[in-house]
Amino acid sequence: MICSDQEILDAFHSDRDFAARLLYTCYYDTFTKWLMSRYKAQFNEVDETFQKTIVVVYENVIQGKYSKQDSLFKTYFNQVGKFTYFDYLKKRRRFDDFSFERYVKYDDSEEVIASKKDFEKKLALVEETLKSISPTCYKLMQLFFYQKKRWKDIASILSYKDENSVKNSWLKCKKKVKERLS
Length: 182
Known about the structure:
elongated, single chain, mainly alpha, 182 residues
């Protein structure tokens, strides 16, 4: 089935259920494969992300936040999906961090203590690497990981144009850190 941008946009304005079915028909397979291969996402994560992405994109289209002049609809959909998946990972990471801290707090076995020391060494190495890349990169990561700031807040604190600029800088910093640590 060929899905034109205009056909999808028209469906959003006339029949929301039809638009959702159309997105599943047109994008589900490629989106799933892309997210699983690019970000090593699990199937259940991708399925949930796809559903949330449909809701976010629908709201954005209805509110006029998407313009055909900005990008192809498929590109826009994938970008929203990517950031929806990142938000999911961020929430899951917070839960995982919290669980790890509780576990360490109540279990003083040698294995847990060794694991925590190993974690702290790796954390110190990452922090050193961040400082060596750039002060801005270090501050960005510190605001995101340690202070748990939202993209919008980071943009304001570091005087970025918008949230997307922060996300792009964050991804570039992350890539540099990975390159230096590997």
